[in-house]
Amino acid sequence: MKVIKFLIVFILTLPLIDSLYAQVTIGEWRTHLPYSQAIRVTEAGDKIFCATRSGLFYYNKTDNTLNKFTRIDGLSDVEISCIDYSPDNDVLVIAYKNTNVDLIKGNEIYNLPDIKRKQITASKTINDIMFIDNNAYLSCGFGIVVINLDKMEIRDTYLIGENSSYKYVYSLAFDGQYFLAATEDGIYKADINSPNLIDYNYWMRITDIPHFDKTFNHIRYFNGNIYTNYFNEVTGVDTIFKYDQNGWSVFSKVSFNRTRSIEVRNNHLIIIIYRIIDVFDANEKKVKQFGSLRPFHGIIDIENNLWVADETEGLLLNKESSDKEVFLPNGPMTNKAMTLHFADDKLFVAAGGDSRTWQNLWNNAEVNIFDNGLWSGFTDVNYKDVISLAVDPDHSNHIFAGSWGYGLLEIQDLEVKQVYTDANSSLQNILSSGPYVRLGGIEFDSDKNLWLTNSEVSEPISVKKPDGTWKSYDFKRQISNIRIGRIMITSIDQKWVQLVGNEGLFVFDVNGTLDNENDDLYKKFNVVDVNNKIITNNIFSFAEDRNGNIWLGTDQGIVVYYNPYRVFDPGIFYGQQIIVPRNDGTGLADILLGTETVTAIAVDGANRKWVGTARAGAFLFSEDGLIQIHNFTKENSPMLSNNIQDIAIDGKTGEVFFGTDLGIVSYRSTATEPNENFTDVYVYPNPVREDYEGEIVITGLVSEVNVKITDISGNIVYETTSLGGQAIWDGRNFDGEKVSTGVYLIFCTNEDGEKTYITKLLVIN
Question: Torsion angle of alpha carbons 747, 751, 754, 755, nearest 10°?
Fold first, then answer.
């Protein structure tokens, strides 16, 4: 059994730890991406840049710090295919998986979206980057793209296939006179002095190399010789060929296996084959051999140190013959984030499968935990597709993880303690032979009973009691043998169940008597309007707000049940779509998000609604949904993707976490959970210094507090109402002017005036 338990830490200096662990301020973003899957490394002056499948970071050799470089810093995208640095032009070129390109020169980032926007039938993947003078040559899935690094623009595109057709180019080399392109059907060469390299006739295939018409995926020129890799897709054993004055021959100084990389840096040839990195000097003498778990790319820096991008371990440094240093920013294990759940001030993330179609993706069982600024987590290759989480109310290191096919995993201190299937619980198996227990949702109720939805079986609801005993329910087979999704337990102890595949909803209430089914209430119903007309039965998310209303996310926007306590009453139980008037003077109105699929809903401390969609990013709406406060998209914010899979809110700080199909990003919002009493009120910053430009936060308040700020003489300079347990002040008076230096009193009074609190704030201007 291969089980991985991890706690990723930084290998860096104390100043960086302080900067990364500092709490983000209101309005700030931060990304939470994995950095272990390193695929490319390059040296840029005193920095070593490392590209991973989810992001970019660099190690600064001058001050020994490790630094993330993300969309928050201005990058245009997330997933990276390759990077390289031109020392002559002082430009870092970043090519993304979606074929977007960023050029970084000094403190400026230039975006070139031309390839991404180009509509072509061939693959647009950017596989490699080569520099000659002031040009960058990109090896693409359709040909070669030339970027002028002086003008920061695309100069040419070479389509080198027959009759200027598309040809998949893996890599490029230059021997001082000829371009050499490793492609899907051989190696092509062209004289750099040709009058028109756009003309495919100037690109000729080399035919004297073995397998001349097969795939070659790496090529480099080193010390007068050409080194290229023949990719043997059938056997999985590649062959590196060398060209010198005697012609082509097998380069036999390396082992034969899958070749991951051929690179030339600082007068060294670096070849990675399977798990071995071999380094050769100019005389082809092997000067270093180094091993790692899954090396993908390597370089020798100017100080003759070996740097390796490893797809499992991250960025590795090898100075001596066998020593290894690991450089890895803290983050989750992968960028998969189907379910986000807060408990005990910690964020728990299930990597999951597919919540839209409820199909298995066969992702390894994985749970990531964000606690006090650090990620830790658990994974086990023996189980797959963990899509739901429940945390023990008494011990947050005790987690239950629901798998879509492998039952219930009980995890204690990041290790599997028990697995519940049909063999040892009331859960049922779909298959006639072999375990296959699909759990769509799990949640604890107020009595610490763990409720589970068991999909596609005759008794689809189970409960694990605090004493460890189990019970299942068939509810007269109203929802038997159909796909069952998430479960939500409301403040009045109703259990709302998502039915997958246009089946609508199911609600049940056992009236506090788990073993007495005679008093159980339950109902399967369509989502209809007041006229009993079906609005939609495709439900993707739901949430209960602070007033007890149930908000549904559907494929036709949002539907709200304002009277959920009446669900079991006779007659029509109907929901309402929110109608929002247009602000264009036409008198027309629209259904709130009526053209969007709403995939996630979360309610903040001020009862506002954070809403995630499948294609339009995330929204923040007022308590009633009529006012749009924010719409964060990839285009207007550091949001990683417009495809939101789940949303969770840290009620203590107001930080909102968005799980997207490309990873997790968070935003510090203005609302927090209110307290019962004024016991933990504090103001920050305090004092407010003359150079401070951010928000002043009064937090730890009770709900709906009126906040008056006065000078020492009692003159009111500002007044506001708290958002949940927090109020915000920009340090200005009613006229928009910064207040003068002095001590200010903050008077806090709840809605009925029964609870009051006074605190002080020093402002220095």
Answer: -40
Degrees (nearest 5) of the Cα angle 111, 117, 123? 110
DSSP state of 702: B
Q: What is the pTM of this model?
A: 0.92
Q: Please, are residues 42 and 84 in contact by the beta-carbon 8 Å criterion?
A: yes
d(CA 613, CA 644): 6
Rounded to a whole number of angstroms, the CA Rg of the chain reads 30
Kindly state the tokens that stand for 519: 């008093």
Per-residue pLDDT of 605-628, as tens digits, reads 999 999 999 999 999 999 999 999
E strand spans, 521-604 = 521-525, 539-544, 550-554, 557-561, 576-577, 579-581, 589-591, 598-603
Which residue segments constitute the domains of the chain, with CATH numbers given? 1-8+334-381+388-420 (no CATH), 526-673 (2.130.10.10), 682-763 (2.60.40.4070)
The helix (H) or strand (E) run that includes residue 363 is none
| Residue in 728, 637, 744 with CA at minimum distance from that of residue 684 | 728
- Compute the distance between CA of residue 282 and CA of residue 155 in angstroms, rounded to an integer: 34
- In this prediction, residue 19 has a pLDDT band, given cuts at 50, 70 and 90, of very low
pLDDT in tens, 443-493: 999 999 999 999 999 999 999 999 999 999 999 999 999 999 999 999 999
Distance, CA of 91 to CA of 107 (rounded, Å): 11
Assign 3-class secondary structure to 50-66.
EEECCCEEEEECCCCEE
Distances (CA, A) of 725 to 253, 625, 718: 68, 20, 18
Query: The tokens of 700 are what?
Result: 């730890």
The per-residue pLDDT for range 407-451, each reduced to its tens digit, is 999 999 999 999 999 999 999 999 877 779 999 999 999 999 999
Edge-to-edge strands, sheet with 239-244: 216-222, 225-230, 239-244, 247-250
Task: Answer whether 41's CB lies under 8 Å from 263's CB.
Answer: no
d(CA 258, CA 238): 5
Q: d(Cα 402, Cα 411) in Å, to the nearest integer?
A: 11
Q: Which residues pair with 379 in a beta bridge?
A: 4, 366
Instruction: Tell me the C-alpha distance between 261 and 258, whole Å.
Output: 9
Chain centroid to CA 51: how far? 16
Quote the CA–CA distance of 333 and 34 in Å, as a whole number. 5
Strand partners, 273: 259, 276
Coil, strand or helix: which one is 73? helix
Strand ranges for 490-636 from DSSP E: 495-499, 504-509, 521-525, 539-544, 550-554, 557-561, 576-577, 579-581, 589-591, 598-603, 609-613, 618-621, 628-632
Question: Can the peptide bond before residue 685 be classed as cis, meaning omega within 30 degrees of 0?
Answer: yes
Among 13, 55, 85, residue whose Cα is nearest residue 302: 85
- Name the burial class of residue 530, with classes exposed (0-12), middle (13-18) and buried (19+) by CB atoms within 10 angstroms of its CB: exposed
Quick check: bond before 687 cis, omega within 30?
Answer: yes
For residue 163, give the DSSP letter. Answer: G
Q: Is 467 exposed, middle or buried (0-12, 13-18, 19+ CB in 10 A)?
A: exposed
**323: number of Cβ within 10 Å:** 9
Amino acid identity at 170: Y
- Measured CA to CA, the distance from residue 454 to residue 456 in angstroms comes to 7
Dihedral (CA of 334, 74, 69, 658) sign: negative
